[in-house]
Amino acid sequence: MRAIRLPALSIASSFGASAATWVLLQQFAVRGLVAIKFLAIGRMLGPAAIGSVSVALLAVAIAEALSDTGLAQAVIQGEHAPTRSQLGAVWTTLTARGLLISLLLVALAPLLSSQFHLDGSLVLIQLAALLPLLRGLASPTYYVVQRERRFQHIAGVEVAAAFVDCSVGLALAYLGAGAASVLIGLVAGESLKSVLTWATMTPRPPVRPVWSGIGQYVGFSRWIWASSVINLLLNQFDKVVVGKLLGPAQLGGYQMSSRLAQMLLADAAIAMSQYLFPTFAAHHRRDPKAASRLIRVYLMAAAIGLAAFVEVLRLIAEPMFSLILGAAWLPAVPLFRILVVNMAVGALIAVLVSYLRAIGDAKATVHASAIQVVVLLISAPLAVRWWGVTGIAWSMTLGLGCAAAWMLYRTLRARTA
């Protein structure tokens, strides 16, 4: 009788510079630190403070989505690695974008403060305005490191930045800095990350304005920009409605429910997409059939795991909120039970998006987002009328389900083509 020999698992390969292990460790460390920071500060400061911070971060998210260049994804997906001159053009473009966003947010801070009932807390929006500038100043070699799948290096940078963010934020909140402590921590973390991209990653682009060489990335990146603009409506519509109509306290409850569900479900898939996108792209360049087999395995494993985890989270939602956040946050439990379903679908979408972009079908994700917009526009008015804020959550979940179905169809079609 022939013995069945199983392949031995190599510890060295599991912790090689390109191993997925580093993505998982990064996910565990970074998301763990983010969870500690927001949950602890949320318990100390309450829903209103978290809602005020959410408005400032919402303004940044809207501005960044409207101006998304898609250059990061274009560098990773491209057939050839960028030259040093091309990296300089990418850095020039991203720095200019970050500066313009920051100036725009500072100029609009009084208007945003009045529209979202921040009671004159201009400093929150002004602090948040520093984030796009710091991100733009970072070295674009970070995307080359992603392209080359040096996940160990990326993990080191991301964990260091998250640790500084968490430490500074918690210390300032404990000392009485209030809602500003969240944003000051984010600024400190982004500052360190930008410094580390220049200090530890090569080749370094020229630190001078360079515009030539950016043209080859525009064709691919325009689909990323289109997707970002559509996703702006999809990802921020519910928060804008809650913040505008109900104020910071209600937005804080909604945002914390969403963030907690995201931490427990979607963030793992989003972090894994850092590994999956360049990995799928590399497999597709060598053998498209191998890439199609790989996506099938990932989708099956993700679907089974997410379904089981969602059921557990829905069952323990109330005691978990009471234990972690306190009684003040219990009204958000019904929202959380809906949003875990939402985030589970979002996790599957993150895997599908990684594959479709890796094979060059970025427009499929734009089409999926457009489908989601149509579903949202049709269902949201009725859902809000019948169920209020929970109706918004269910409408968003329905739209995500339709988008996921479309991307799954395009993935299977590409696999069988």
From TrEMBL:
The chain crosses the membrane at residues 49-66, 87-111, 123-145, 157-188, 260-277, 297-316, 336-356, 368-386, 392-409. This is PST family polysaccharide transporter. It comes from the Bacteria. Residues 1-19 form the signal peptide. It is a multi-pass membrane protein. InterPro entries: Poly_Biosynth_Transport. Its main location: membrane. Coiled coil: none annotated. Belongs to the polysaccharide synthase family. It is found in: Cell membrane. Keywords: Cell membrane, Membrane, Signal, Transmembrane, Transmembrane helix. The keyword Cell membrane applies.
